[in-house]
Amino acid sequence: MTVEAKICGINDPAAMAAAIDGGAAYVGLVFYPPSPRALSPLAAAELAAPVPVSVKTVGLFVDADDADIDAVLEAVPLDVLQLHGKETPERAAALKARTGREVMKAISIAEAADVDRARAYEAAVDRLLFDAKPPKDMENALPGGNALRFDWALLQGRAWAVPWMLAGGLTAQNVAEAVRRTGAVAVDTSSGVEDAPGRKNPRKIRAFLDAVAAL
């Protein structure tokens, strides 16, 4: 089984090179200012310049307005808009129609009811992403990239009308088990290839991509 990998939150050239050279299918750039991985449009454009057409460049946004998204798109050749906030299906569909970009909606998961919420987005987006929902008492929690995993059993036996991607605490050490238990054919990591929030480790990126390639 071929499993695609996305390295998210890339914010330096060494990490980008490791992701591209290691065989990532997607590279993620964060446009959410509270995140330690956040980039300006100019910095993101410089990082995205060497990305080959065979690799999709993903921009992560959290409840961003049209003006902020347009400012990024003017500078950065994004292939995919990843919506990681409380965007409604209607908002996702409108962005897809207005920008002409693929749209991926992140669904934060803690219980079965959270998984069920994804159904409303199936007709509005190109892809779903299942990530761990941070607990309400977690300090400085981000919408994603918190090094948390959810109960993978919640996805077992589920089928979706659009492709989906698994995220949430994935590392080189646990990605094989995650794929085996969920049936995911695409995986996403950010904190799992870092030494600290926002500090990507190229060796960890390569190890993660090697682990995915071995599946």
Tell me what you see in this structure.
The chain starts with a strand and ends with a helix. The strands form two sheets. The chain has an eight-stranded parallel beta sheet. The longest helix has 12 residues, at 202-213. It contains seven helices and ten strands. The mean pLDDT is 94. The protein has one domain (4-213): TIM Barrel (Alpha-Beta Barrel), CATH 3.20.20. By secondary structure, it is an alpha/beta fold. α1 packs parallel to α7 (202-213) and α2 (41-48) packs parallel to α3.
In short:
The chain has 215 residues and is an alpha/beta fold.
Give the end-to-end Cα distance, rounded to a whole number of Å. Answer: 7 Å
The sequence of SSEs as H and E is EHEHEHEHEHEEHEEEH
Beta-strand content: 15-25%
Number of helices: 7
Number of extended strands: 10
Biggest β-sheet strands, sense, barrel? 8 strands, parallel
Q: Notable features of this structure?
A:
eight-stranded parallel beta sheet, globular, alpha/beta, two-stranded antiparallel ribbon, 215 residues, TIM Barrel
